[in-house]
From TrEMBL:
InterPro entries: FAD/NAD-bd_sf, GMC_OxRdtase_N, GMC_OxRtase_C, P2Ox-like. PANTHER family: PYRANOSE 2-OXIDASE. This is 2-methyl-1,2-propanediol dehydrogenase. It comes from the Bacteria. It comes from Pseudoalteromonas holothuriae. The gene is mpdB. Transmembrane segments: none annotated. Residues 420-543 form the Glucose-methanol-choline oxidoreductase C-terminal domain. Residues 21-322 form the Glucose-methanol-choline oxidoreductase N-terminal domain. Its EC number is 1.1.1.400. Pfam families: GMC_oxred_C, GMC_oxred_N. Belongs to the GMC oxidoreductase family.
């Protein structure tokens, strides 16, 4: 077993790991980064300008390519060869692994909404879950720094669920599509605002990255760097400092400790040779994703850490949360057979509906805590593999129905906040191991009545908006059937929760584990709650803030 020595070792190259590596290397520190997946170069591998008609099955998804033939996740999915996971009885949970350099940033939706003062102190307001160990004002300047480096398009909206960015930070948003303007008009009649989505897509050139010119779905990847992914931004910028070394195909097995229980590095398996290697480092940062980092900690038992590393609180693996999800759509009569024009934009919705219910919560008018938002699907999209089931006939008659319907559908994807519950957590299944001999994760998951009531409210609201637009919407499905499966939205967080007490959390506000001062977690596992907004922007923001603090500790000789 070979051994090497390094100062800072980062596990994972996605949002948290890449931002930690970028921040530390820019501050002059040598960093070694381990990635469990293969090397990936989007500038060479991205299938830009390819139409669905050029792909097998018209580009449709299958069990090997969940999001379609051109999906930018080359080797990942909810099921990864040689890497099983298990479920407790009556649990349905999907665990997405990217397994490539850049992690999930290669294929995420790139929605980049700030968490607000409502999100960081939810328990103080309604008594549920846990507060974060800092205020919004503590992280606001770091949001500005992150948005500036990443490149976020959008605008300050004055909406109480969308904290403003500093002047000059946001790039201009793309113009709304015609159906989105219709949604905005209909929702306004109900007292609900639709506003520009904030998205990690460049509408203006930035450093070596070009502005988006709306030619390829972002999910294919982006060879010009307009759609943010760490493989075209943070990682190359960190390498340019001369302070970053990257090893791919490195599956971390455990964090190593000495006889006193102090962290000394990690042991990983080279997936190409199946040989184990131990890397020594003064500081270890886990950013492998919420559940993978928790798995590593739970598999790092030692006589000084009998319940797993950094787990004196018993909270590693607990507080597992995912975003809620549901969908409702309909055909809008006013949009049938409308004139054809370019409506591509930056792939996703240009407008969305942020959560509007904070005042209603304060008045006690809602029967569920926290909130949700609506992402809008509409417009002239690239034809796919199927035709909706309301079409009849064949030949020219069927073709005319398809032409009339093209661009006339509007859908609402609900994304909402889940609160932690005692029935949702992950542990180690010591009866099952992956190809490299590492015990796998076992999931327990359950939605509570709070989430089901949220979904019920969301479906009723979406139906109101659609009917205001003139659509015919049938009977709504029960929330139990409409709600997404656990993990299906790919926003799992909370398994190494931060807090202000070592008895109730795994890390402090800096991502530093209470039990091991030279061990940090910098992925979504540290989230104290799971606001309805995509978690990636906040992962990067925390990683930048916490890595800056870590660099100061190293410079002062504390670590």
């Amino acid at each position: 077993m070979a051994t090497f020595d390094h100062k800072v070792l980062v596990v994972g190259s996605g949002a948290g790991g890449a931002m930690a590596a970028y921040t530390l290397t820019k501050l002059g520190h040598k960093v070694l980064l381990l990635e469990a997946g293969r090397n990936y170069e989007p500038t060479k591998e991205t299938p830009m300008f390819r139409r669905n008609s050029e792909a097998p099955l018209m580009g449709a998804g299958n069990k090997d390519k969940n999001f379609g033939f051109y999906d930018a996740t080359v080797d990942g999915g909810w099921q990864v060869p040689n890497e099983p996971y298990t479920h407790a009885e009556n649990t349905d949970f999907y665990w997405w692994r990217a397994r490539m350099l850049g992690g999930r940033t290669n294929h995420w939706g790139r929605y980049s909404l700030r968490f607000s003062e409502h999100d960081f102190k939810g328990k103080s307001r309604d008594g549920h879950g846990a507060d974060w160990p800092f205020e919004y004002q503590d992280i606001a300047p770091w949001y500005d720094k992150t948005e500036d480096i990443v490149g976020i398009c959008g605008t300050n909206t004055d909406h109480d669920d969308m904290p403003p960015s500093a002047p000059g930070i946001l790039q201009p948003p793309p113009a709304p599509r015609i159906p989105e303007l219709l949604v905005a008009a209909a929702s306004k009649k109900l007292g609900i605002a639709a506003v520009p989505m904030h998205r990690a897509v460049l509408t203006r050139k930035k450093d070596d990255r070009a502005a988006c010119f709306y030619a390829t779905p972002c999910g294919h990847g982006c060879s010009i760097g307009a759609a943010f992914q760490t493989t075209t931004s943070l990682l190359p910028m960190a390498k340019a400092t001369g302070n970053l070394e990257v090893i791919t195909d490195a599956m971390v097995k455990s964090v190593t400790v000495n006889d006193e229980g102090k962290v000394t590095g990690v042991t990983y398996v080279n997936k190409m040779s199946s040989l184990a290697q131990t890397i020594h480092a003064d500081v270890v940062i886990l950013a492998a994703s919420a559940c993978e980092s928790a798995r590593i900690l739970l598999n790092s038992k030692h006589n000084k850490h009998p319940k797993g590393l950094a787990n004196s609180s018993g909270q590693v693996g607990r507080n597992l949360m995912d975003s809620t999800g549901a969908w409702l759509g309909a055909q809008i009569p006013a949009l049938k057979n409308r004139p054809r024009y370019n409506e591509d934009g930056h792939t996703a919705n240009h407008l969305f509906i942020p959560w509007w219910g904070h005042k209603s919560h304060a008045k006690g008018e809602l029967d569920f805590p926290r909130g949700y938002h609506f992402e809008i699907s509409s417009g002239f999209r690239q034809p796919g593999s199927g035709v909706s089931g309301d079409k009849q006939g064949y030949g020219s008659v069927l073709k005319q129905q398809v032409r009339d319907a093209y661009g006339s559908y509007v859908g609402f994807a609900l994304r909402g906040e889940m609160l932690p519950n005692k029935d949702s957590y992950m542990e180690i299944d010591n009866k099952v191991k992956d190809k490299w001999g590492i015990p796998v994760a076992k999931f327990h998951f359950k939605w509570s009545d709070r989430e089901l009531k949220q979904i019920e409210h969301g479906l009723k609201t979406a139906k109101q908006i659609l009917e205001t637009m003139g659509a015919k919407v049938g009977e709504l499905p029960p929330a139990e059937k409409a709600i997404s499966k656990g993990g299906e939205i790919i926003h799992e967080v909370g398994t190494t929760r931060m807090g202000s007490s070592a008895k109730e959390s795994v890390t402090n506000q800096w991502g530093q584990t209470w039990d091991c001062d030279n061990l940090f977690v910098m992925d979504a596992g540290v989230f104290a709650s799971n606001p309805h907004k995509n978690c990636t922007l906040t992962i990067m923001t925390l990683a930048m803030r916490n890595s800056t603090w870590l660099a100061e500790q190293i410079d002062q000789g504390v670590l």
